[in-house]
Amino acid sequence: xxxxxxxxxxxxxxxxxxxxxxxxxxxxxxxxxxxxxxxxxxxxxxxxxxxxxxxxxxxxxxxxxxxxxxxxxxxxxxxxxxxxxxxxxxxxxxxxxxxxxxxxxxxxxxxxxxxxxxxxxxxxxxxxxxxxxxxxxxxxxxxxxxxxxxxxxxxxxxxxxxxxxxxxxxxxxxxxxxxxxxxxxxxxxxxxxxxxxxxxxxxxxxxxxxxxxxxxxxxxxxxxxxxxxxxxxxxxxxxxxxxxxxxxxxxxxxxxxxxxxxxxxxxxxxxxxxxxxxxxxxxxxxxxxxxxxxxxxxxxxxxxxxxxxxxxxxxxxxxxxxxxxxxxxxxxxxxxxxxxxxxxxxxxxxxxxxxxxxxxxxxxxxxxxxxxxxxxxxxxxxxxxxxxxxxxxxxxxxxxxxxxxxxxxxxxxxxxxxxxxxxxxxxxxxxxxxxxxxxxxxxxxxxxxxxxxxxxxxxxxxxxxxxxxxxxxxxxxxxxxxxxxxxxxxxxxxxxxxxxxxxxxxxxxxxxxxxxxxxxxxxxxxx
Length: 527
Ligand code: XMP
Description:
Its main location: cytoplasm. This protein is an alpha/beta fold.
């Protein structure tokens, strides 16, 4: 395993990502991680970039053990400065920012004085190569016992290596795609210099994870978890099913604001298709009754979130009582959560999680007073790895590629009050829009699409009659991380077809508009 210590650069997680693409297992932890607290020893350590200057009083620094355990170290950007700072505090020039492409010139030293290890980082890369720079401070001269292994026009020490130890620092970012040979640099470091194993695959992950779950839970332990029909919770549930069979209890809460026929479909796929032990609770009346008169977006979110927790807790109690009654099983002690790596990264960051923009209610966000221990089998994976894992576990393609759907459901896609009639309209329009997107072969290209209902009335003529009805707003975005997003450029013929179908087929709608707001300033959802 390669340990990545994160100083908070926006690119840090990509380091882990690239290493896994090379079939090398890698974990990222906050830069302040004490090595003595790990129950494993890394084969090598990478210090990431970060938005600081090592000279600031509150600048973060790594555990001294990093320089004592004797494994190779690669410092990237701030990481390079952290190494330099450890080998002599006066080696940095002030903050001169440099962003963008730079031409890197590699300097080779041969086997002479240094025994050849210094050349290994840039093996198999031409002497002149393009790199991506994004940094504040740069080195003014080398720390003691280091030599230069690469330069750029503005950075005379764009790469350095220790003369006898396997410590390397680079000023550029090898983990971004703007550094075309960056992956080779990471491979040289991890495989040739650290001798990390390159046998990490999804199949192996599945076996290891099933083994780990079995050990953790024991032969009697029981696990409960909420599922939503989305890819994360389904993959997590299927993994539990493979590990402990019916001692895993999945719960789907029908909150009345799921998509059309969703509860039914999820039941079919999970129970009949995947053999998961699933209980569906129809709580739609309770949710819809409680939503009466609520128009404030945050109030809707809070009400749905809290009610979800109440219903889940009641169901858990009931399932626990039944399970306890049957002789084979123990108590339910565990709660499954579909937490992914990006959520983990966010919460382990030493700066603390980023500010809350909206109250996100996830199926996972359950209260601590349930007294259950958490089990999070996906916490090491990125979204596309979860998809791959899903395919590996035999989950249908359709589900694996499903667009994300928010916990508060279409309640936050119905602006204003949520009534059963408004739910019907929003659902029917959504079905048509998604059907047409799939028919046009655009579903995978679009990251998320849905129909929202605007509770304003406009005039139209339908048949020979004047009507006064509501509007549907279509939303479709492309994004990689859901933090920023662009609206999808449909062609006119497509929009015309969708609009005609919605107006003709959905009672209560006489106009359709397309939302052409990017995020930011818009958000993906409308509330
Ligand atoms: P926004 O609207 O914040 O959405 O741009 C970003 C992504 O998050 C999803 N989203 C949610 N997911 N619970 C969820 O599980 C929520 O409360 C929630 N709100 C937004 C949204 O669908 C998009 O994918």
